[in-house]
Amino acid sequence: MAASANISTLSSSSALSKPMSESPSFCLNQPQKTLFSLFPKTLPKPSSFPFKPVFHPQKSQFIISSKNPISDFFTTNETDPEESFVPSFSDDDDKPREECGVVGIFGDPEASRLCYLALHALQHRGQEGAGIVAVNNNVLQSITGVGLVSDVFNESKLSQLPGEMAIGHVRYSTAGSSMLKNVQPFVAGYRFGSVGVAHNGNLVNYRALRHMLEDNGSIFNTSSDTEVVLHLIAISKARPFFLRIVDACEKLEGAYSMVFVTEDKLVAVRDPHGFRPLVMGRRSNGAVVFASETCALDLIEATYEREVNPGEVLVVDKKDGVQSLCLLPHPEPKQCIFEHIYFALPNSVVFGRSVYESRHAFGEILATVAPVDCDVVIAVPDSGVVAALGYAAKAGVPFQQGLIRSHYVGRTFIEPSQKIRDFGVKLKLSPVRGVLEGKRVVVVDDSIVRGTTSSKIVRLIKEAGAKEVHMRIASPPIIASCYYGVDTPSSEELISNRMSVEEIREFIGCDSLAFLPFDSLTKMLAADSQTFCYACFSGKYPVMPREIKVKKVGDFLDDGLNGPMDSIDGGWVKGPRNMEIEKEIDPMYQQSKI
Q: What is the SS3 assignment for 366-387?
């Protein structure tokens, strides 16, 4: 796959341009349906941010300097795929998508190359775009591109990114003609210096912030919510720089794990609820590394030290090493449970827990609460494998590879003129007839979103000769959209929000269906259960979207379509607000009543 690249150098003269059923949802009983719970319009206002600098005992010898930069954004003239091309991420890839992964490295002479490798390890978090910003000789240099990390970067490009400090980003998005300019990290210059940022998450008050900034003269070059952060930093009156970040983040609502780079500092920040993961590690030479998952630390031989705490700012520089600052007084953490269900790699430690152990336990629970007579247990690869291993071990039934996944399917493919049934699924998954024929098969998958892919997988397995197909899902039913950095469909499209378990079973055509019971999930998490966000299972949001329409992550708007925001409603979905709140905050509604 060819990658479109954007290379920019920053010089010194510039300005900144359904709620959960009361009964467990693991059996074949029809769950009770209710409406979304309604929350107050706003959460309590956090108090001021008292913080005390805490210095890390180990300091590294860092020598970095820089100048004022200017950001150059370039767009590509790529055309949309022709109609004969079928997107490989359509209904045949019916999974929630993590929006992105971030990396930051300080104090290593090969920072950009290590960043490149770390992004490889985080490639599962985003495959549509990648970028690196490195600092060298008072200049922030940026290379971004569309495609996989290996498509965007090669030896020649990495040689253009010298320096001991770098940040990187991998991104998921849908197709779009102007996508390149939304690929991070973003870099911009302002009156007192320059800053680059890479962001994992989603701001639920993005539109309100953008409108406020535009009303005050700000000009936006992208349609990403991350650019709002740069503008807020630029207009802040706080000193020194890291207090500008604190000042900006006080205005943000939603999910953000971010890394910033300036001429002499690397800064990592995590939102007060800690929705998205961010960890810190250290290499043997003292270089400090931040990453979305520990698997990135493993690849570049960095030792995991700890998580960046919710509401924490970590500032790394040559003079003081690592300083820990309190961003905001924070409520109880609400970390994304789907990191353990689907997003993170099994070899990662996320939110202080082994992802592999969590998924194995999910499978064991399913085998206990929803047993069935079977001959073989298989997984929907790759995300269902560990849970399937847990199910097989607990049930005492052999686990085998009944579905083989192709890892070589590109972003688009050409379908023959004579239609092939379930073409997209067959491209990616191939059944092993010797494993399935004449067998009673348990199929373990991590989740069901729309149900379209599950129905095709069941049909594929039965066509391979399976006698019975029993689906076991290693998560509770998904009934609500995520607004915190995960690309999920609107609630109306979620099959568990529209159908009972029995109705879903009939729709996908399996012989039995069971989901992971929510109460068993929380019991397994034990004391940590209160620290996770379950909004996608309950419809109860820790931070309610403050706008009638909330960005549909990874859809039209986020891909850089130009024009007034209100003219592209296809990129927005209704936020879970009641009518009284809509009346109160919707200016168009107010005008219609005048």
A: HHHHCCCCCCEEEECCCCCHHH
Helix (H) or strand (E) holding 185: none
Question: What is the residue-wise DSSP string for 118-133?
Answer: HHHHTGGG--SEEEEE
- Helix %, strand %, coil % for the chain, to 5? 30, 25, 45
Residues 20 and 167 sit within 8 Å (Cβ to Cβ): no
User: What is the C-alpha separation between 127 and 146, in angstroms, rounded?
Assistant: 9
- Residues 103 and 266: beta-carbon distance below 8 Å: no
Sign of the CA dihedral 188, 263, 253, 491? positive
Q: What's the pLDDT tens digit per position in 461-507?
A: 999 999 999 999 999 999 998 888 777 778 888 999 999 999 999 99
Query: What span, in angstroms and rounded, lies between the C-alpha atoms of 403 and 381?
Result: 7
Cβ-contact 44, 99 below 8 angstroms: no
pTM of the predicted protein model? 0.77
H or E element, residue 197:
strand 193-203
Determine the Cα–Cα distance for residues 576 and 545; give it in Å rounded to an integer.
7
Q: How far apart are CA 274 and CA 327, in angstroms?
A: 12
For residue 223, give both structure tokens.
Answer: 């349609």
Is the distance from CB of 16 to CB of 189 less than 8 angstroms? yes
Active-site pick, 27, 100, 295, 336: 100
The helix-helix angle for 501-508 and 452-463 (nearest 10°) equals 50
Note if 100 is an active site residue: yes
Secondary structure class of 158 (helix, strand, coil): helix
Q: What is the pLDDT of residues 21-51, one digit of tens each?
A: 333 333 333 333 332 232 233 333 333 333 3
Q: Which of 166, 158, 168 lies closest to 102, judged by CA?
A: 168
Strand 376-379 relative to strand 440-445, pairing:
parallel
Given a contact cutoff of 8 angstroms between Cβ atoms, the answer to whether 253 and 205 are in contact is yes
Q: CA 71 to CA 190: how far, in whole Å?
A: 10
Whose CA is closest to 465, among 482, 441, 445? 441
| C-alpha separations of 329 from 45, 49, 55 in Å | 10, 6, 20
Q: Which residues pair with 325 in a beta bridge?
A: 313
96 and 342 Cβ atoms separated by less than 8 Å: yes
H-assigned helices in 267-309: 294-299
Give the CA distances from residue 546 to residues 69, 319, 450, 508, in Å, rounded to whole numbers and listed in that order: 34, 41, 26, 36
Orientation angle between helical segments 518-525 and 355-369, nearest 10 degrees: 140
